[in-house]
Design a protein that fits this description.
The protein is globular. The chain has ten helices and ten strands. It has 280 residues and is of the alpha/beta class.
């Protein structure tokens, strides 16, 4: 019988401190400690990861402790979160890709890992499970159809990678790195992360200019894109389409903050209503 492997989770939590617009709006010392629905972003993500089967340990990359040199309350808040069982903190690097690579370097080469971000306030175990189950890949990328996000939240502004003739797909800041070979793409990430709001340049960086041509002609499907990427990088990388549109919503802007708080309030009201029914 094949033993089910435990994954290490890596949470990218480096940010700009009180200058971040989310931190400024909430009065928090940094974005990752900003309360959303009364609970800090980082705490929400950590609790979800701890509730997710197959997540065995968690590395939090950032926020930088130097941010809290003159704020003992914020330092204590962060320390409390980092004292959760199985959680460790490491200092962030100068970019998300470098931070991810640094955290991966702390793991054994064959240790599988899940990579996500501290601003994924709507994260649920049900969003993570399909990525961990896709172990036939070296690396799996969580994505949601843009049409599903637009249908559920028509006023939410999300960046879509348009492939084929459809509306395209949204990234979810969820990556499952199943093998040592899958880690190669993390180093490649640094070459294109500055262009993440420019899908054509991302396609060029990862797939080459033939890929750009096919993309421009609407002939590059999602399957084609990942097959080309796999061949070009000599790894098996594939998209995992998630059914929950909330998987594509992180807290990047004040509009996102308002949307996420509205969704959380709706969830809370539904939960309270269900409990009221159960007790009658």
């Amino acid at each position: 019988m094949t033993r089910t492997r435990a994954y290490a989770a890596i949470v990218l939590a480096g940010d700009r401190g009180p200058d971040d617009p989310i931190a400024a709006a909430t009065g928090a010392p940094c974005k990752s400690l900003s309360p959303v629905g009364g609970i800090a972003l980082l705490e929400r993500v950590l609790e979800t990861l701890r509730d997710t089967p197959r997540i065995g340990s968690i590395i939090v990359v950032g926020p930088a402790r130097t941010m809290f040199a003159d704020d003992s309350h914020a330092a204590a808040q962060l320390d409390t979160l980092l004292q959760m069982p199985g959680v460790r903190w490491v200092a962030p690097a100068d970019s998300p890709s470098a931070s991810a690579a640094g955290a991966l370097a702390l793991l054994e080469p064959d240790q599988p890992a899940l990579l996500t971000t501290a601003d994924h306030a709507l994260l649920r175990p049900s969003m993570i499970a399909p990525l961990l189950a896709a172990e036939g890949n070296d690396l799996s990328v969580g994505m949601v159809e843009y049409a599903a996000v637009r249908a559920a939240y028509p006023h939410s502004r999300r960046t879509a990678i348009r492939l084929g003739r459809g509306d395209g797909y949204c990234s979810c800041n969820l990556f499952a790195i199943h093998t040592a070979a899958g880690r190669q793409l993390v180093s490649d990430w640094s070459r294109v992360e500055r262009e993440r709001k420019n899908p054509a340049r991302v396609v060029a960086g990862m797939l080459g200019w033939i890929g750009v041509l096919r993309y421009a002609l609407h002939r590059l499907t999602l399957a084609d894109a990942f097959a080309r990427l796999s061949r070009r990088r000599r790894v098996n990388v594939s998209a995992v389409l998630l059914s929950e549109p909330e998987a594509a919503i992180d807290v990047d802007s004040l509009a996102d903050l308002r949307l996420v708080e509205s969704i959380l309030a709706t969830r809370l009201a539904a939960f309270a209503g269900n409990r009221a029914v159960d007790t009658t």
